[in-house]
Specification:
This protein has about 220 residues and is an alpha+beta fold. The protein is about 40% helix and about 20% strand. Strand 5 and strand 6 form a beta hairpin. It is elongated, with a radius of gyration of 21 Å. InterPro entries: Anticodon_Met, Met-tRNA_ligase_1, NA-bd_OB-fold, tRNA-bd_dom, tRNAsynth_Ia_anticodon-bd.
Length: about 220
């Protein structure tokens, strides 16, 4: 990603024609991702991580051979294609590492501008005093402790408790958002949201993104 900042003004460069170098990489990535997936399905984490490291090694080898920092001096369009391919590789790597390092995966995807959509089970829901549109939810992401989500759902869900036990879809890799503070009866508390619920419609008639009841908390949407 640092190369994109330096060589493409921090933007996703356009992809032009590829060569045998890229075609070979795409084949490797497809095969390795298949190995990663099968290893996790077989409950063989060591084999899965070995394949994941192989994916990273394939990327490093491509960088060394492509040398976009040198290519850009003679053929900027070709260098931009190489950078575009590297960004796609990083996206694939972020998927491969998720079962073992979900937080690192989310961090990578955030830097790439890719949302991490996750299934969450609502554990608690309550109105935010003196903030008519806001609810404070705690949601189970399958992590060590629940996360807090602050969402503008109060005009639709006037009885917040109906949300408890519901599976919702959340963008999980956003930076925390500060909503100030509120008094929930035990003195003022900081009101910080660690994610965003997916919903559509007007504030008075919002529709939450639905998900099957059997989906486990923390499952990633693809």
């Amino acid at each position: 990603m640092g190369l994109c900042v330096k060589l493409a003004d921090g933007k996703v460069p356009a992809r032009g024609a590829t060569t045998e170098l890229e075609d070979a990489l795409f084949t490797d990535v497809k095969n390795i991702l298949g190995m990663v997936r099968q290893a996790w399905l077989d409950l063989e984490p060591h084999r899965a991580m070995e394949a994941t490291f192989a994916l990273a090694s394939a990327g490093n080898l491509y960088v060394d051979r492509a040398a976009p920092w040198a290519t850009v001096k003679q053929d900027p369009a070709r260098a931009h294609t190489q950078l575009n391919v590297l960004l796609e590789l990083l996206s694939a790597l972020s998927i491969a590492i998720w079962p073992a390092m979900p937080n690192k995966s989310d961090e990578m995807r955030a830097k790439l501008g890719l949302p991490s959509l996750r299934v969450r089970l609502v554990k608690t829901a309550e109105k935010v005093p003196k903030k008519d549109k806001l609810l404070r939810l705690t949601v189970d992401l399958g992590e060590e402790s629940p996360r807090t989500i602050v969402a503008g759902l109060a005009l639709t869900f006037k009885e917040p408790e109906v949300l408890v036990g519901r599976r919702v879809v959340v963008v999980a890799n956003l930076a925390p958002r500060d909503f100030g503070s509120a008094d929930f009866g035990k003195g003022k508390e900081k009101l910080v949201s660690h994610g965003m619920l997916l919903a559509s419609g007007p504030s008075e008639d919002l529709r939450l993104a639905s998900i099957a009841d059997h989906a486990p908390a923390g499952a990633r949407l693809k």
